Amino acid sequence: MAADSAYGSAEMLGWLVHERGIELHIPVFDKSERRDGTFERADFAYDHRRDLYTCPGGKELRSRQITYKNERPLVDEDGMVRYRASKLDCDACALKPRCCPNARARKIPRSIHEGARDLARDIAKTEAYVTSRHQRKKVEMLFAHLKRILKLDRLRLRGPNGARDEFHPAAAAQNLRKLAKLIPPMPKPA
């Protein structure tokens, strides 16, 4: 399935991959990059087997640093698991000014759908993804043409059948305009 980055959220990717089993050709919607010069999430290595992150200094970030008497949930209401470094590790680390200068210890949130996001990132590196992106751009241009030139910017009929009933004549008009460009002009009578 190909779509634009509006469909690249963690929840949508997780639903498509885990519940529907669809191969994704969707750019991942990602805001994890930093502009302040500190380490990004990509600088931390995630170990799937041990379920922890390793920082550039070699220290481990775990979802649990201590064992609680009453078990607490790992996942918060936003669907995120928080991985935290030990304050003792961060205080002794020479990389602290580049890692977490304004915090006691480094925290990394990880979505419960991060596996689907990783899969989408891996697919984005393939040749098939480049081909599907090129084809998707062609379709998007046709929809942009429908919206701007043929003034189909708002659907008047409701539901999927109504949308189909509006798009079919608009697509037919679009195809007729394309065909009209292929026909050579008629010679003018003398």
TrEMBL record:
Top-level division of the source organism's lineage: Bacteria
Name the record gives this protein? Transposase DDE domain-containing protein
Boundaries of each Transposase DDE domain copy?
Answer: 54-180
* Organism of derivation: Pararhizobium capsulatum DSM 1112
